[in-house]
């Protein structure tokens, strides 16, 4: 998951699974997170970035091994990313529960990781 995709005010978003929710968090926080990662790139105009650009960069930032998937380790790192404000007292059990939840909802082919396509598809039914 980019972001990954989001990754954000996760403690509240992930632990309560009933009703509408986002597995990747608040879009404003996603945009800020991406902006922080890209700020040193000369000529980058953040005002021209689209929501799709944000999603792509978020996925790419957290796809550490660049295999085109977000696995459990990459999801864990995204969920505890201090820049996203996600390390606020989350217990290991909560993080594991969050990862399991994301994989249950978004891993369409049950291979234990989230592909770019699965991540994009999840955005369509996780719009909050």
Order of helices and strands: HHHEHHEH
Number of strands: 2
Low-confidence stretches: 1-19
CATH architecture of the domain at 51-126: Orthogonal Bundle
Task: Provide an overview of this structure.
Strands 1-2 form a two-stranded antiparallel ribbon. With 128 residues, it is mainly α. The N terminus is likely disordered. It has a domain of 76 residues: EF-hand (Recoverin, domain 1), CATH 1.10.238. It has six helices and two strands. This is EF-hand domain-containing protein. GO terms for molecular function: calcium ion binding. InterPro entries: EF-hand-dom_pair, EF_Hand_1_Ca_BS, EF_hand_dom, MCFD2-like.
Concise description?
The protein is mostly helical and 128 residues long. Helix content is 49%, strand content 5%.
What's the helix and strand layout?
Elements: H1 10-15, H2 27-38, H3 51-62, E1 69-71, H4 72-79, H5 92-106, E2 113-115, H6 116-125
Helix pairs in contact: 2-3, 4-5
Task: Throw out a few tags for this protein.
Recoverin, domain 1; 6 helices; 49% helix; 5% strand; disordered N terminus; calcium
